[in-house]
Amino acid sequence: MIEGESRPPKVAIASAGAWGLGLACLLERQGCRVTLWTRSPEHAQVLEMTRLDPHRLPGITLPEAIAITSDPALALSGAEAVILAPASHGMREACRLLAPHLGRCHPGVRLLSGSKGLEVDTGLRMTQVIGEELASGLPVAALSGPNFTIEVARGLPTTTVVACPSREVAEAWQSLLTGKAFRVYVSPDVVGVELGGALKNIIAIAVGMAEGLGLGLNAQAALITRGLAEIARLGVTLGANPLTFAGLSGVGDLVLTCTGRYSRNRQAGIELGRGLPLEEVLASLRMVVEGVTTTRAACRMAAQQGVAMPIAEELHAVFFAGKAPAEVARALMSREPTRELGPMDLRAPDW
What we know:
The chain is an alpha/beta fold.
């Protein structure tokens, strides 16, 4: 509940992709008044009539109490909380469509990014995009963690993290989102939480590729572990707390995405390892594989910061330079031997 209010809070969720649908189910179950916004009038009409979206959320029926609209003014009217959850490449456009109507929200409205990814052209995190287009000085929180949408929608036990520079805002979101099957932790480390959620998709493709190539479980474990090192190196260089990457939005989300059967990024990697071309893989999955575009942004950022990300760099060569997936393992295994701990680690020995 909003402090001082006796009625259930109104939450607007934009947009009606898989995660938006899952969050709508979660919040309606927890007593919120939920309005789900989709840019497509046709999609809104189908959802309103059928309460089903078998492509995005198979087997889940949207509760009748969830309002559905393609009108941004109606979606934001009276909203005390707004969750922005489009695919990362659509975040800026979604914000621009919503911005003219933000004044229709409750005066104390809070904003939350539920999207995991980096803007390709700028390398910006999603809270930064929201800040540029929509926030007008408001603190923007980020939601990230090991959260498969289908399990959240079904009400299975889940934990996650909300990060925000404002402790008050983070704890308000914690209070709103926490339920019997959804446990929320808070963090001030927006940089680390967002980068963990975005960069793990790259590593999940690599792990899936190793599986598709038949390289064994040892190789997959190595990719997860050294992938976490890459994520942490870039994150710490950009100002993140290294301990964040040992938490839910770091290793927790990484392990889930690299090993879970619902992971689109892992599945894309498996198909690439089996020899299918990238375009065919993406077309067959019919949903956004965030790790592909994130690889481009991450490699550009790493080069600018002078940070080594060999796994991401090898995937970049596969995606955008035609390198054969089978060559990736040989390239990674033939790198110059080095020590495991690096100079930025918390207790690296002096040798």
